[in-house]
Design a protein that fits this description.
heterodimer; A: alpha/beta; Rossmann fold; 8-stranded mixed β-sheet; 10 helices; 34% helix; 19% strand; B: alpha/beta; TIM Barrel; 8-stranded parallel β-barrel; two-stranded antiparallel ribbon; 14 helices; globular
Chain lengths: 270, 372
């Protein structure tokens, strides 16, 4: 995976709600990536995607040492902030990806601001945990099927993880199953990719099935031998599916064989 | 104890010569073949009348060794000739196949048969990897991933895709889905320590149907049980399937004559051609990473041993009904298994003699061993 030619830049955006830090890299169709509760992790496949798309990674207020913003206190507020970010920084309809906590925000954003969102990617999305005790155990083994695949820079990002998770918990307000969002998932009309690791110990397959059953134009893909952070456990598989989905839209269902050069061809009109 | 009547469906119409694998199919007579399939299917259907709990079939390629390139076709035919007997398909060889097709065919069988399927998800013997051009070194990885995918295809309520190491599917939702819920019981081969551990991980029935050493087979059961317990589940006797060749006749002399000749034919004629391909795979690849391959190479020597010796070793069932009852009891003491697979069509033993053996099994053996 050649990711050496792409470097993420750190910038700030002035939005109606306040100033938001973000990372950006690449050229091409804009894609917003919403980070998980652990904070921003600019993973290897995100770098690879940035060779074909412009990847924007906003930092949710309060994460990674940033200041909270007044009036941004809930998941719904974060979804509104993402819509502001799309308006001000991108100024066109864009694709939206979210991982875990970021997937929860992305799903709300698709419900509340459908005009901003083209395609949606929900990687192990949080917010739909069935009743029962939360998963117990060492965070590393809950998150990763292959912790040995963490690069030094990925491990560095883990340094803020504990503090970040507390911030995420405040936004969530302790809700495991977001009934309000569940009731509105059927409103999502965006073409949606739902990714679930077969070894995810943090969020089980029931969440993914729920999303699949409620979002009409959705595709659920199990990534084999991946835990909660598919990007780390199986970067190539993540890139293959997500790249195809972002590049081809519904055409990602088709095996294009080896005749087509790579996965990132232009998406046709709907 | 429950019993499987297994038939390898060998082609025994030819001459005594053997050829290297793959065996030239000019030796196969498709007109006679139609009758042979009918005779074998009649024979397998008769197992239901004889009180067997399952009829067994499996998968082999490109040899007179066994005429079931696709065992689900055979099992499908059996569904139409039987009413109650289970279908123990101790194929398919999933690393060689499209796992979604395996899931679909097994689901069809389960529905057509009214939920009678025991689904074998097997790795196969080494030369099959040459037949289907699959790298033998990938056999374990493909097996494990394919089993996970097949179980998903059987149980997943929503359409799904799969992005794996060996298999990628973007949209799966099989029709029909299986009748047995959550899915048909699975049997996996456990004839090496690594295979035994995989079977435990998949909560599959541990199948050992080609045993060459009782101590090794017991060790595989021990590994399987220990590994299962470490994973939080407890196998019962119904999770252990043991197989053996079996010849029952009215007299010891007759049984000995039939079995000795059948074993000679199996080793010299049917298996001869397989050995070259087998040897190449075993020598040149990591098919058996745990050194099991050296034991596998001893099959011919085992088959050539005197019949009394292999009976004493607990590897073969042979004799009068009374003798076979004692041999079965001894095997049960060794393994504590709940499923016993019996292969009576050994080599060129005539079908009439096999049928007689099945009748004796029904009348004189089964009543004595059913309660084991």
């Amino acid at each position: 995976m050649a990711d050496d030619i792409v470097t993420f830049e750190q910038k700030t955006a002035s939005l109606p709600a306040g100033t938001v830090r973000y990372h950006v890299a690449g050229t091409g169709r804009p894609v917003i990536y919403l980070h998980a509760a652990g904070g921003v992790r600019l993973s290897q496949p995100l770098h690879a995607l940035a060779r074909h798309f412009t990847i924007y990674v906003p930092v949710f207020p309060g994460f990674d040492g940033t200041a909270p913003l007044p009036g941004i206190a809930t998941i719904g507020d974060l979804a509104a902030l993402v819509a502001q970010f799309a308006d001000r920084v991108i100024a066109q309809k864009c694709d939206l990806m979210g991982h875990s906590f970021g997937g929860h925000v992305a799903a709300w954003c698709a419900v509340l601001h459908p005009d901003r969102i083209d395609q949606l990617v929900l990687q192990c999305a949080a917010g739909f945990r069935p009743p029962g005790p939360p998963p117990q155990g060492d965070p590393m083994s809950l998150l990763f099927a292959h912790p040995e695949r963490l690069r030094p820079e990925d491990k560095e990002a883990l340094g803020h993880a504990a503090a970040n998770r507390e911030v995420a918990q405040r936004y969530r307000g302790g809700i495991a199953m977001d009934e309000a969002l569940l009731a509105r998932l059927g409103e999502i009309n965006a073409l949606t990719l739902i990714l679930q690791g077969t070894q995810d110990r943090m969020i089980g397959p029931d969440s993914a099935r729920l999303l699949k059953s409620r979002i009409a134009r959705s595709h659920l893909i199990y990534v084999y031998d991946a835990g909660h952070v598919i990007e780390i456990d199986q970067p190539q598989r993540f890139l293959s599916v997500v790249g195809d989905f972002l590049g081809r839209g519904e055409g990602f269902l088709v095996n294009w064989g080896h005749g087509v050069s790579g996965v990132f061809v232009a998406r046709g009109p709907e | 104890m429950r019993f499987v009547y297994f038939n390898l469906m060998p082609w025994t119409e030819g001459n005594e010569t053997t050829e290297d694998w793959p065996v030239a199919n000019k030796r196969y007579d498709p007109v006679r073949g139609t009758d042979v399939y009918r005779e074998y299917l009649d024979n397998m259907a008769y197992a239901e009348e004889c009180g067997f709990d399952f009829v067994g079939c499996n998968e082999h390629h490109m040899s007179p060794f066994g005429l079931q390139a696709n065992p689900t076709i055979i099992a499908g035919a059996i569904t139409q000739r039987t009413k109650r007997v289970g279908l123990a398909v101790t194929g398919c060889l999933v690393p060689l196949l499209n796992p979604i097709r395996v899931a679909e065919e097994y689901a069809m069988l389960d529905v057509i048969s009214g939920g009678r399927l025991l689904a074998g998800l097997l790795r196969g013997i080494p030369h099959e990897y040459v037949a289907y051009n699959v790298p033998p070194d990938e056999s374990h990885g493909r097996l494990i991933e394919a089993v996970e995918l097949i179980k998903k295809a059987w149980t997943e309520p929503e359409p799904f895709g799969w992005e794996g190491e060996f298999y990628q599917f973007r949209a799966v939702s099989i029709w029909p889905r299986p009748r047995q819920q959550p899915h048909p019981p699975i049997v996996m081969s456990g004839q090496s320590p690594s295979s035994a551990r995989i079977a435990a991980e998949q909560r599959a029935i541990l199948g050992q149907v080609l045993i060459h050493d009782v101590a090794a087979a017991r060790e595989h059961i021990r590994i399987y049980k220990e590994h299962a317990e470490s994973l939080g589940w407890q196998p019962s006797s119904d999770h252990i399937m043991i197989g053996a060749t079996c010849c029952v006749a009215d007299t010891w002399d007759e049984a000995k004559r039939l079995m000795s000749e059948g074993r000679r034919y199996f080793a010299d004629v049917l298996s001869g051609g397989l050995r070259t391909a087998q040897r190449i795979v075993l020598q040149k690849t990591r098919y058996y990473e745990d050194g099991y391959g050296s034991k596998f190479r001893d099959i011919r020597q085992a088959v050539q041993q005197p019949i009394e010796k292999v009976i004493d070793a607990g590897l073969v069932l042979c004799g009068t009904p009374k003798m076979v009852v004692e041999q079965l009891k001894r095997l049960h003491r060794e393994y504590g298994h709940g499923i016993m697979q019996i292969n009576m069509k050994v080599g060129n033993i005539p079908l009439a003699a096999v049928t007689r053996g099945m009748t004796l099994f029904k009348e004189e053996i089964l009543p004595e061993v059913r309660g084991l």
